[in-house]
Amino acid sequence: MYKWTLGLVLISSIILSGCGYNTLQSTDEQIKASWGEVLNQYKRRADLIPNVVNTVKGFAEHEKDVLIGVTEARSKVSTIQATPELINNPDAFSKFQHAQGELSSALSRLMVIVEKYPELKSDTNFRDLQAQLEGTENRITVARNRYIQAVKDYNVTVRSFPSNLTAMMFGYAVKPTFAVENEQEIVTPPKVDFSSKDAPAK
After folding, report:
1. Helix, strand or coil, per DSSP, at residue 79
2. pTM given for the model
3. CATH number for region 40-198
């Protein structure tokens, strides 16, 4: 009886492996890991923004509209529950992506107005924040690209025969990824150049 049971287990393992089950499992886990890194980097950016806004406010308080725009965009992002389940919900994922895109745009506008304030550009605290922000934007780009590739590998398995049959049997569905039309806006870091040599003459 034991031999029969062992034989059935081995046969089942071979069948599942040949039908893409193991690939579905591994690619799904890779998506979760990649998504976690995306969220970590977005959170890092969100944590930096209050300090950036407060520093800019100290030198350019009358740029109220831009400062409010960044604060409101950050607030909107924080209201979205970025849980692991979000990557299985296309509508929720789209809202999350749109909110992050709006924050990127608001942050870019903030960086543009900085160019008008030489004293702000040369401020040591702000230059440190600038370095952290640039580094975070670069890490966001890397994390997003890894997520996009992980989703691509997974979705190919879900759609391909015979693994698509296994996917349907075990409830694996195609997952959303970052939309092409927003790719350039989101992955391009805000232009931040605070070198004093570019400061306009007083």
Report:
1. coil
2. 0.78
3. 1.20.1440.20
